[in-house]
Design a protein that fits this description.
The chain has 369 residues and is α/β, with parallel strands linked by helices. The chain contains 8 helices and 19 strands. It has helices spanning 13-23, 40-43, 62-83, 101-116, 126-132, 154-167, 275-288, 334-349, and strands at 6-9, 29-33, 48-49, 94-98, 122-125, 142-146, 150-151, 171-174, 178-184, 187-193, 197-199, 202-205, 224-234, 243-246, 249-254, 257-261, 299-307, 314-317, 324-328. Strands 5-6-4-14-15-16-13-17 form an 8-stranded mixed sheet. β14 and β15 (249-254) form a beta hairpin. α1 runs parallel beside α6 (154-167), α1 (13-23) packs parallel to α8 (334-349) and α3 packs across α8. It is globular, with a radius of gyration of 21 Å.
């Protein structure tokens, strides 16, 4: 078997997007994923494309996250044509509800700087809000509408990215965990998995919160798991689809269900669902939509998001190892940033122009003074 030009460690949405971008550029790619199902974090994601949900005006990644959101508009149809998979792209906007005077004032300030920065944002009065989402809590004072934000379905997205990559020659290997990175003459020579040694010309680390657990890395990689619990409820009867933030949580319409979340817990690799986590999620969801107060919980689950010390992903080449690349640590923005991450890495790999300032994502920021 020929040695791939690139071996991608991790078959979640980030690894799949990297594989697709490279395969579409004619690079031979192998994706190695530990689980029987690819993308453990992906399986648990809500799928929101919401760069403005928690944005601040000084955020160095804001323009990047906005472009990442728009990337899906650009490629959703192409993915459908390539694979026959509908990623469920929703582009009708996201609401952020204000329940207090302080929240309303903060929201209006956010609208001001977003508009001054050239981004679309609107304030909906209580009356306008109820016209759009009639089942919202009666005491909601209004909401910020980010009209170009949206959502998609993470599992179909992952399937589409992998199918698209495989159609261009990428090979997916499931059920092998990469245990160690191997080196020769100052460069990566391959990896040792639970099944065998695999050689490669270049290595991309896209294993999410497991990245730092891989042996043989040239230096510690600070990507840690952050547990996010979620709950599915029946969507309120007669209520139009919506994606709504508020009361410390969110509710997302997906396939007739209300997907509600989420917690952020530093509990290691524990993916347990806890009564307290579910209680907090339900409290927020029912605060947004009172009709959910008596709704039966259809299911609950938890995923592990890969977080870094500064909350920003690691994207790019290792500062000392020329054929070692990082695409990990995307935290809560894994789905949002995945597609563009793949595109950027593909461009970097082939020496193409990248229009974004990648300094805030440089992996070397954690290891150089």
């Amino acid at each position: 078997m020929s040695v791939p030009e690139v071996l991608v460690v991790g078959g979640g949405v980030v690894g799949a997007a990297c594989a697709r971008a490279l395969a579409h550029r004619g690079v031979t790619v192998m994706v190695v994923d530990a689980g029987p199902k690819s993308g453990v974090a992906t399986q648990a994601a809500a799928g929101m494309l919401a760069p403005f949900a928690e944005a601040i005006s000084e955020d160095p990644l804001l323009s990047l996250t906005v472009r990442a959101r728009d990337w899906y508009r650009d490629v959703a149809q192409a993915l459908w044509e390539e694979t026959g998979i509908d990623i469920g792209l929703w582009t009708d906007g996201i609401l952020q509800i204000a329940f207090t005077d302080a929240e309303a004032a903060e929201a209006k300030n956010a609208i001001a700087w977003q508009r001054q920065s050239g981004f679309a944002a609107d304030w909906l009065s209580a009356e306008d809000l109820r016209e759009r989402v009639p089942g919202i809590a009666e005491d909601a004072m209004g909401a910020v509408l980010a009209p170009e934000d949206g959502a998609l379905e993470p599992i179909p997205l992952l399937a589409a990215l992998l199918d698209s990559a495989e159609a261009r020659g990428a090979r997916l290997v499931k059920g092998e965990r990469v245990e160690e990175v191997l080196f020769a003459n100052g460069k990566v020579s391959g990896v040792r998995t639970t099944a065998e040694r695999r050689s490669c010309a270049h290595l991309i680390l896209a294993a999410g919160c497991w990245t730092g657990r891989i042996g043989g890395l040239p230096r510690p990689v600070s990507v840690e798991p952050i547990r996010g619990q979620m709950v599915a409820l029946p969507w309120p009867n007669g209520e139009p689809p919506a994606v709504v933030y508020g009361a410390g949580g969110y509710v997302v319409y997906r396939g007739g269900e209300a997907i509600a979340g989420s917690t952020m817990e530093h509990v290691g690799f524990d993916t347990s669902v806890t009564p307290e986590g579910v209680r907090r999620i339900l409290q927020s969801a029912r605060r947004i939509y009172p009709a959910l107060a008596d709704a039966e919980v259809l299911r609950s689950w938890a995923g592990l998001r890969p977080g870094t010390p500064d909350g920003r992903p690691m994207l790019g080449r290792d500062p000392e190892i020329p054929n070692l690349w990082y695409a990990t640590g995307h935290g809560r923005n894994g789905i949002l940033l995945a597609g563009l991450t793949g595109e950027i890495l593909g461009r970097l790999f082939l020496g193409e122009t990248v229009e974004h300032d990648l300094e805030p994502l440089d992996p070397g920021r954690f290891w150089t003074a």
